Hints:
Blueprint: E1 6-7, E2 42-51, H1 58-77, H2 82-95, E3 115-121, E4 127-133, H3 139-151, E5 164-166, H4 167-176, H5 184-187, H6 190-209, H7 217-226, E6 235-241, E7 246-252, E8 273-276, E9 285-292, H8 294-300, H9 302-309, H10 315-328, E10 341-350, E11 361-371, E12 375-382, E13 389-394, E14 406-416
Parallel strand pairs: 1-14, 4-5
Antiparallel strand pairs: 2-6, 2-12, 3-4, 3-7, 6-7, 8-9, 9-10, 10-11, 11-14, 12-13
Amino acid sequence: MEDLITCVEEQPQPPSSLPNSWTNQHSDSAQRTDEEPKAVGGFVLVHAGAGYHSESKAKEYKHVCKRACQRAVERLRAGALAMEAVAAALVELEDSPFTNAGMGSNLNLSGEIECDASIMDGKSLHYGSVGAIRGIKNPVLVAHRLLSEAQKGKLSAGRIPPCFLVGRGAHDWAVAHGIPPCPAEKMATKFSLSAYKRNKRKMEIAEKMDTPENPMKRRRQSSETENGSECLDTVGAIVVDQEGNVASAVSSGGLAMKHPGRVGQAAHYGCGCWAQNSCNSNPYSTAVSTSGCGEHLIRTMLARECSVALQAEDAHQALLDAMQNQFISSPFLASEDRVLGGVIVLRCCRCEEDPPSQDLQASLVEFLWSHSTESMCVGYMSAQDSRAKTHISRLPPGAVPGHSLAIEGGVCRLTSGAQAGP
Length: 422
């Protein structure tokens, strides 16, 4: 496995006091000094999009990934399950003006921000999703609330609760369930507005150049617009908690200059994220979060395909085969010039070599990322780590984006006071 990283066990550090609504509970647990220290398990892997990450902004991309990992780990250390931790990571990613999710997302053709997000719980297999939602600062919170409400059972008169809402209906449902709206002018940033103006000018120029004599010029111009450094797509996170439960989430502002009402892979079931605890037929718990060109990821259902592939013995080879055969060389994308996407994945299982113990159990987590875009920014951290690690993965020199793959990852051995597993 390339770039193998082993996370060394150490005593948990107190959570940082960064301001966030997800971190103000259970703070007393970090201050106990008269009790035996309790082993805490858990691991988080996040990404800030598959696309192109310029060297000039590398520090900012890494910093937001680091903060997202810290948010999730704070929740894990406080005893939260994977679902709550993965949502906390996504809120941090959405709040950054440097990511294409939540605040600062790409603007559509009408100059408006419409976001997609979804979340999946590997324990219950419940799923929540929103598409083309406007005026909500953290779309992942709406997806999370949809999932939570669905877990409560049927509505009045035996109605089935929704798991996927779009547009105005999603916005109104969110507000009715206590999620505050955000004015449109606060959703956009100077960066996203500047990118919108540049892209609009490019489109106008492309329209003028689109003549019978130059049929390819508009296509090339459009490709440059959609895949530029300002058009990084979906952000996401995957988590395994101290009980061995997995969860996954994604959030996106979608492609730059998209048509109003367009819904990308971040909202589609089996395309943006996937999480599934181990069971009799699946020896591994798996979690996946995707990024890239939404249409490519939707037509291949890449998140679900990668989860299935990870049940093979060799996770590295399984992911490589899935990305090559089910994505880049997929018959569903045979007409595409370039197939652009990326994934982060993890799988975990009980460490069979460890002697059984009622007080302490161990899990082995394998985590990987792969992309066919020029780069992908990732961050990862275990609950035993004092700080997160970040990395901007890039295609090998000479590799052609959309036709080549980069794949890296590592392993982490986790201990916890609770038994690992579903």
